[in-house]
């Protein structure tokens, strides 16, 4: 009977092969059991693809324009007739006062993009209207300004053609009336007037004049002025959600959740005790980032401090409630961190912090409106840049308050169920 003698190198190769196969099978079995991680591995690339495909767009195709004063209706008709006016949604308000103060008041509301005040019934676009842009909406203001300048150029080009044709007709008429000196003199004078208008308009067309476009709240359209107020919310979202999400999980992993279950306190008291340190830490971070933005980047603070503080407290309540809810449904720290990151990524991309909401697809914009950072960004920019008051910001404040109640209610109910099952 013959025996096959294996060399040491063959034994090592076989052992390595068996070990790798065992590790391969083990990892797949662990992934199969950890369905949350498996779902994140599969869904995250698709989510990022959809988000960047439908949301990563800096061009704004829908801009709200409100025209004020008694001439609002006729001005809207004139503006709609200009080439390039398709992306503007014009609304005539004949009862509103056509004043700069009223324009600023309208621009302080979250829906205020552009306000137009008529000033003449004839002439080019720059001679007929004054335009006020909301500089706190950076990409909307940039897009609107570029389109308005192009509309002005197109309007001048059209009027140049009309004046050129009128001047030619006047000259031909003057030449045809040589037999009648009086009429010929009048026709020559009319032709001279048309020629002077043509020369003046041609000179005006060569000069780029944007004095009729006034940018409010961010005159130089600085990116930092728009980003810093939103970054305050992002910092609070990361700290509040990520750190709080591992709170209950650590109790479960340390085996102390059973001790909490037998203590004579209710779930909402446990949650309040767990989040209090994180709440105070987030308040300190919010204050530090806000002060750094104001003093290092020269960002104005035109609003009321108490309103900004109220918005910060409401937003902190939302993100802390979200973190506690994640903590109650996660079994391990890794799961909690993964779920927290899954909530932070869409808030960063779909809240209007990086990409304007107006440029997103409708269904993506609807998702953005469900995210708490969307509403804090509106309040933060509104208070710091626009100087908006509580009446103008009642909607985002109310939505954050509602989200805070819903998330803490869901977290309390989930924790109560977990404690009863122990």
TrEMBL record:
Organism per entry: Actinomyces graevenitzii F0530
Pfam families: ABC2_membrane_3
Record's subcellular location: Cell membrane
Gene Ontology terms for molecular function: ABC-type transporter activity
Superkingdom of this protein's organism: Bacteria
Family: Belongs to the ABC-2 integral membrane protein family.
ABC transmembrane type-2 domain: residues covered: 182-418
UniProt key word Membrane: yes
Principal location listed in the UniProt entry: membrane
Any one Gene Ontology cellular component term annotated for this protein: plasma membrane
Coiled coil: 153-211
Bilayer disposition of the protein: Multi-pass membrane protein
Keywords per UniProt: Cell membrane, Coiled coil, Membrane, Transmembrane, Transmembrane helix, Transport
Protein name: Putative ABC transporter
Membrane-spanning residues: 38-56, 225-249, 278-297, 303-327, 348-371, 391-413
Keyword S-adenosyl-L-methionine attached: no
